[in-house]
Design goal:
The complex is a heterodimer. Chain A is of the alpha/beta class. Chain A folds into 2 domains: 178 residues, Periplasmic binding protein-like II (D-Maltodextrin-Binding Protein, domain 2, 3-Layer(aba) Sandwich); 136 residues, Periplasmic binding protein-like II (D-Maltodextrin-Binding Protein, domain 2), CATH 3.40.190.10. Chain A is 34% helix and 17% strand. Chain A contains 14 helices and 12 strands. In chain A, strands 1, 2, 3, 4, 6, 7, 8, 9 and 12 form a 9-stranded mixed beta sheet that branches. In chain A, β1, α4 and β2 form a beta-alpha-beta unit. In chain A, α4 packs antiparallel against α13. By secondary structure, chain B is mainly α. Chain B has 2 domains: 180 residues, no CATH class; 185 residues, no CATH class. The chains are: A alpha/beta, B mainly alpha. Chains A and B meet through α1, α4 and α10 of A and α4, α5, α6, α7 and α8 of B.
Chain lengths: 375, 434
């Protein structure tokens, strides 16, 4: 029962007329401060196989389109694969993998990509116990984690980044905060604030010139176990606990950014892919006196932004040439033009073709040759 | 003996493994029943209504910009009606999840994108902060039903849908089934089966529980229907006022008013001047006709809406009858059981009938306005026009300012002018006849 729609048809027209022309969300891509060109319409879905449809339709900035276009076209195997590929792990990567999986399934109708979220730690556990074929981990595994898995399973660990993301510090777009450094992040987020004398709880503690003056700085964060938070902890407060002062733990990454959009005094921690026009991701410096780097497609991709993180798929095998065929083919798909398109459309940063992992180096090169022959 | 102990331990271990999230939560007294969830969902709808009302009043009060007031009114009508639409839908878990989706998407559209500031400037802060509060509230309710991982997944599903459908204006009518496709039903079933913090539903009694919920939802909605009739009329008024034709007509009304002011002098002189006067009156009648031509399509829309409400009322009444017969059957089956407090169906029926009567009255009024093209009974025609215009003016007046004040004055002058002209015309004809 909806009695209202009829009479308000013209409201939509008014909204369209008054609404900002640029898309407000992730596909706008580029940098947080650099609005993307308004696309005609978003692609309905990723066209399976061969090339990236969104890239072709001019959905991205030229920089992103060029980066995607450098990836090889995907050539499906014949006879086609059949069966289920089970991936368990990172919550942040669940939708990305579902999107990627859907595109892959449409190439091989007999394949099902079963994605289960639950956190990177659960993914590692499931991989060790053989409950999944791949683990999705939204950070690089530590050396000790790798050796522990290899000891427990007697197999080698292969980590393949399929996209990049970054932990960003968000403020309201009207907040002129020029940048933030490692020590300041420590003072804001650590309960023990080992790098600063006093905790930073007001805006003029952080920036003497801040127009917000003595107002408190409510901080919006994600649960500790979230990959986004882990990156912050590793960067600014290793071994320290998160503060409890003025802290609001949000139920999702987009909610953190939303708080920064709505509240002028808010400061939040969320992923780069969650950026929105009314929130600004501030530049971050490695330390006091060092240059600040703003998170952007380029700075995350070339790793100059300090809090970048890889979104990895982890697979186990006795050796590189013994990685299960379908798992390897799925990784190759992720490293194809269509695969990177499926990542980029969700606001993730595409990986650098020149930094292909050892496991895929040969196949990426070979695909270029095969495609050249096919053309 | 030792073997038996091992067997018992193993059995305990396996039982432990099969324990659902909801069962574990129950041990910690963290679970929530379906009934509680239904109440939370209804309470949230009312809370959302309050937040939107407060924000819209602040944005609209003393706001001279008709477009700004109109968009705000449209937003609150769409948002609140959608929220009640969800709260009265059949499935409790789907209700919550749909409310989560709508409020989150509204935040994307109106808060995160900066559209509010673009439309309302500094006044936008009221809406922005209240929409954010609504989001905080509904996600807090979500935390009582879903696990952290499920919430995280929901957040990602919504944000990914938004990433590829960001241009959608009518976010109030997006539902979880649109956002999550196949995964949506799987998640809902997972929660219902104990995979969240909701107590697993007892399938045997679920149907009876759903019938009771349906009854309560019907009452919940019926009580709020008159509010929407009022808001909707206001929306139509705004739609009408912003039409370029309406704006032109309002300017013409000034001319009619001027003529009316000069009326006594003109009547004093007869002959050719009298004829000229008559022509002017005819012009004013034509102007009124033009006004009515524009009103007619709008009233047709309203009639369609009212007819829809009428149908809804009938279906609610029908639902009441079904529930009543179910109760009678249940009472017959449990003849020996101690009497339970029955639901007083008649009380609600009376309420529904009252709502229905109001709608029928409104419908009659609007029907009358569509017959206004008849040129023979002008005086009779003016009465319902005046009533209709006054009704709309009252709606606008309650929310607006001096612009509306001018409008009232102009329309009142039009009505007075036409009545005076009629009188003069009558007088002139009598003199001509004599």
């Amino acid at each position: 029962m909806n009695p209202i729609r009829i009479s308000l048809a013209t409201l939509a027209l008014a909204c369209v007329a008054l609404a900002p022309q640029a898309s407000p969300t992730a596909p706008a891509s580029g940098t947080a401060s650099q609005p993307a060109q308004a696309p005609a319409a978003p692609p309905a879905a990723i066209t399976p196989g061969i090339t990236g449809s969104a890239a072709l339709q001019g959905w991205y900035t030229p920089e992103i389109s060029d980066a995607i276009a450098r990836f090889p076209e995907f050539l499906a195997k014949t006879p086609p694969f059949e069966g289920t590929l089970r991936i368990v792990g990172s919550n942040s990567m669940a939708s990305l993998l579902t999107n990627l999986g859907r595109a892959y399934e449409s190439i091989y109708p007999g394949v099902k990509i079963a994605v289960k979220a639950g956190g990177s730690a659960k993914g590692i556990q499931a991989l060790k116990s053989g409950e999944c074929d791949m683990a999705s981990v939204s950070r690089a595994l530590t050396e000790s984690e790798v050796s522990e898995i290899e000891t427990a399973t007697g197999m080698k660990v292969f980590q393949v980044p399929i996209a990049l993301d970054a932990t960003c510090v968000y403020v309201n777009v009207d907040n002129p905060l020029p940048g933030i450094n490692r020590e300041q992040l420590n003072g804001i987020f650590s309960i023990t604030h080992s790098l600063t004398k006093d905790p930073i709880i007001r805006w003029n503690d952080l920036d003497k010139k801040s127009p917000l003056g003595e107002q408190f700085m409510p901080i919006y964060v994600l649960p500790d176990s979230h990959g986004t938070m882990r990156t912050l902890f590793d960067f600014a407060m290793p071994g320290e606990q998160l503060t409890t002062i003025m802290r609001f733990t949000e139920p999702g990454a987009s909610s953190v950014v939303n708080a920064c959009c709505a509240y002028p005094t808010a400061l939040g921690i969320s992923g780069y892919s969650n950026r929105q026009p009314r929130a600004r991701a501030v530049p971050v410096a490695e330390g006091a006196g060092k240059p600040s780097v703003a998170p952007s497609f380029r700075s995350i991709r070339d790793r100059s932004y300090p809090m970048w993180r890889p979104l990895n798929l982890v697979v186990l095998a006795k050796d590189a040439d013994q990685v299960p065929a379908m798992s390897l083919d799925f990784l190759r798909f992720a490293w194809s033009e269509a695969g990177q398109d499926a990542c980029a459309i969700l606001g993730m940063v595409v990986v650098d073709i020149d930094r292909a992992p050892e496991l895929l180096k040969d196949s990426v090169q070979r695909r270029f040759t095969e495609n050249a022959v096919a053309r | 003996m030792l073997g038996l102990a091992c067997l018992l331990l193993a059995a305990c271990g396996s039982a432990q493994k099969k324990q659902t999230v909801a069962e574990k939560a129950k041990l910690l007294d963290q679970t929530i029943t379906e009934k509680q969830l239904d109440q939370l969902s209804n309470a949230f709808s009312d809370r959302y209504f309050t937040l939107m009302l407060a924000a819209s009043e602040k944005v609209m009060r003393d706001n001279p910009d008709l477009q700004q007031r109109r968009i705000m009114n449209g937003l609150r009508v769409l948002g609140v009606s959608s929220m009640y639409d969800i709260a009265t839908s059949p499935d409790t878990v789907t209700q919550l999840i749909d409310q989560l989706v709508v409020v989150t998407l509204q935040n994307y559209f109106w808060v995160d994108s900066g559209r509010s500031q673009l439309i309302w400037g500094d006044r936008a802060q009221y809406l922005v902060q209240n929409l954010r509060r609504a989001r905080e509230d509904i996600w807090q309710i979500g935390e009582r039903v879903f696990t952290r991982d499920q919430l995280d997944e929901l957040d990602l599903l919504i944000s990914n849908w938004w990433a590829t459908n960001g241009g959608t204006e009518f976010v109030a009518y997006v539902r979880f089934s649109d956002v999550a496709a196949g995964r949506g039903s799987a998640l809902i079933e997972e929660v219902k089966g104990g995979g969240g913090l909701l107590e697993p539903l007892d399938r045997a009694t679920e149907q009876v529980a759903q019938a009771n919920f349906a009854l309560e939802r019907s009452f919940f909605w019926a009580k709020r229907v008159p509010l929407f009739a009022g808001w909707n009329i206001q929306a139509i008024t705004y739609d009408f006022l912003v039409l370029p034709e309406s704006q032109r007509l309002l300017k013409n009304i000034n001319a009619v008013s001027d003529t009316t002011a000069a009326l006594p002098e003109l009547l004093a002189s007869k002959g050719e001047l009298g004829k000229e006067l008559l022509t002017q009156y005819k012009d004013s009648i034509l102007a009124t006709g033009a006004l009515l031509d524009k009103v007619a399509p709008l009233t047709t829309n309203t009639q369609a809406i009212l007819r829809e409400s009428d149908t809804a009322m009938k279906s609610v009444t029908e639902a009441l009858r079904i529930v009543q017969s179910m109760q009678q059957a249940s009472a017959a089956a449990n003849a020996g059981a101690p009497p339970a407090k029955p639901v007083d169906v008649k009380e609600y029926e009376a309420l529904l009938q009252e709502v229905h009567r109001n709608l029928v009255e409104a419908n009659k009024l609007l029907t009358t306005t569509t017959d206004l093209t008849d040129q023979k009974q002008l005086a009779e025609r003016l009465k319902p026009i005046e009533a209709l215009i006054q009704m709309r003016i009252r709606e606008v007046q309650s929310a607006t300012d001096e612009v509306t004040g001018k409008l009232v004055w102009r329309i009142a002058m039009l009505v007075a002018g036409v009545l005076a002209a009629l009188f003069a015309f009558h007088l002139w004809r009598r003199r001509q006849a004599s």
